[in-house]
User: What shape does this take?
Amino acid sequence: MEEAVELDRGQMLRERIEGMRRGIASALLRIDEITLQINPQIEADYAVKIGCYENELLQAQIAARRSKRRLALVQARINRGETVDALEIENQLDAELAAWEAQLQARVDDYLEKLKKRTHSEAMIGQDAEELKALHRELVKRLHPDLHGNQSDRERQLFDVAQAAFKTGDLDVLRSLEAATRYLAKRDVLAHATEDELAVECELLEIQLEMTKRRLEQLEASAPYNLRDKLRNIDWVCARVDDIRARIAEQNKVKKEYDSRCHALEEGGHAD
Assistant: This one.
């Protein structure tokens, strides 16, 4: 009788473990889908619809800052009775604003990279899309480090390849990996575990499941994922673009004012 109860407890623990593993795997799959596929698409969409204007705004801000600083340098030299050397001032401005220019260039490079990915990517639909998800789901169960903490270096490398293939939608690689790792689907590291060991595993999996769910919630609540619906809203996009354009116009106006004052100063006028 006691042996039967012992077996029942062991079976219950194994069922709980299996259920929590499924829950963790499901959350991990969603995290991968968002991180590797959905978010890059959102970032590319944002770059096309809004990012280009943000880059233009940064460029306008740098130009206005440059004009303001140029005015200050010219004023300082005149106040000291020195000759205004335009080339010297421009070289100094280049040096002082190098970090800003580098930031602008990095953003432009990132913008171009996102556009390249967008123009070279094709949405996978139908049976191919379903197969891609099914293969990735199976490989996550077999290879994900969060589900197999004691895996070998080779298994970790296989998982990295699977992640890269899922990100790019490479069905052939995923098919190959699925065939190459079928032996892992049959392993049961808890086959000979005691009831105490199963109970400890349950506790650890409960913590891991909660942490994984929380990680997914945070991912869904943060950018760029939380911009997904907004970018589909034409009114929201137009309002955002209009706001950025207004700020660009204001920076251009500021630059023009500083340039005018600097020119007047160089021609013998006075700056306030």
In short: The mean pLDDT is 90. The longest helix spans residues 2-79.
